[in-house]
Model the fold of this input.
Amino acid sequence: MAELKNMNDDEKHLAKLGYSQELNRSWSGFSNFAISFSIISILAGCFTNFGAGFNNGGPISISWSWPILGLFILLIGFTMSELVSSYPTSGGIYWWAAKLGGPAAGFFTGWLNLIGLVAVTAGVSYGCATFIDLTISTYSESFAGSYSLTRVFIIFVIVLGLAAVLNIFSSHLMAIMNNVSVWWHVVGASIIVAILIFVPDQHQSFSYVFTERFNNSGYSDGSTTNLAFWFAIVPFGFLLTQYTITGFDACAHLSEETSEASQAAAKGIWRSIFYSVLGGYILLLCVVFAIPNNAEGQPDNALAGGGVAGIFVESLGTNWATLVLFISASAQFFCATSCMTSASRMTFAFSRDGAIPGSNWLKKLTSLRVPANAVMMVGVAAAVLTLPALIEVDVNGTPVPLAFYAVTSIAVIGLYLAFAIPIFLRWRHGDRFEVGSWNNGSKYKWMNPIAVAEILFVSIMLMMPSTPAANPFRDEFEWKFVNYAPIVTVGALILLTIWWHASAKHWFTGPKHTIDEAVIEAFDG
Done:
């Protein structure tokens, strides 16, 4: 067929999967790696969720939990690399699930993935807004004096708006921005590590960093020795690692825009995880070593529980702290922009198959072949999801961004549960699965079950009330303390189940082909 002869290998692989080349394939393998590395963003998650880890375990929640969880997440990445090598489409996770488990698996996976992607865009953008506010506040006392949650929310909306404009302008521009973002993260993190090593007058001991325990959750009267501490409190802190090392499915969502995608996207997933786990660990250890002493000459755990800004100001001084916060805030903006790219591509792919209300509008491309309507939808949804962040909450007298933690929990739960479905289905397919050029060989037999088990455990922990006042069975319960991650996630699944049985199962048939059936048949033949 003449149509086949004019296709390159990427277009032939995509055609075999049922799609014509609509998006602009201008991304290199490095650019594909770069978007996931940017979305993981050790300068975002490590800093914005530092308090979630430190308050639920203390230094050990960072020095031990991070590398252990990092290994599990790398294992998850290997299982997904194998999948994207076989199926390099923008639909990514949900496409794999539909291919391996049928329309219902694809439908639920797609919606979990979309919820997670919108939530991670919201979480990163709000974290960026918080750090922009902190950067200016550290430098300007008058600005700090007029702090309000409303001001932070306005900055958050501006960040979302700028990210949307950049995404709408050009896909190729986003590829360039992600390349720049990698070097900003590498050089920026290196500068921060050097500052944290050489500027503070004193550092904490190895014993403190690797053995000190701290419980500011409000549970167990602050105990750090009982079983509840190890099997409930410390797992609450897993949010730090699991949220930071997420969003690497972007390599799949951008695979239709990447050259040699079967290899490049597969390598992009596991490499972005590996380098982020390594770099993030070094960065976090430097922060913990830099925690200053209090007036009694003891490590100031209470200060550290309030987040990294206090550590930076007390241990580095105003000028150095401002520089560190500026580097981080800038990296977080790159990250937010990349998150929106990934979320909009998934929205485009899911709409292309008719799974979202208003699909005809959402799947439209501009003259530059960018899904602008999908970009705008992601921005608006992210803003709405984060509205509870306008409510001020104190835990044990310390202002705690519980709404931010809830949004980041929704991101982790939605994304990782979406990952778990095709990982499990690939394992169930066994040797019947048609592997791509990058694969795990027979190791999938033990890798995939372990990956699914880790996802289920962490997802359950992140749905628990993270403070006593969030527990409806406690006398101190108040709605403003509630972790609304399970309400959003479980509520969405209930609504989706009703929708599926009442309507969607009659018309959603999974991925739709956008290429001549004769071309697909030519490959099958």
In short: The chain has 26 helices and four strands. Residues 34 and 180 are 9 Å apart (CA to CA).
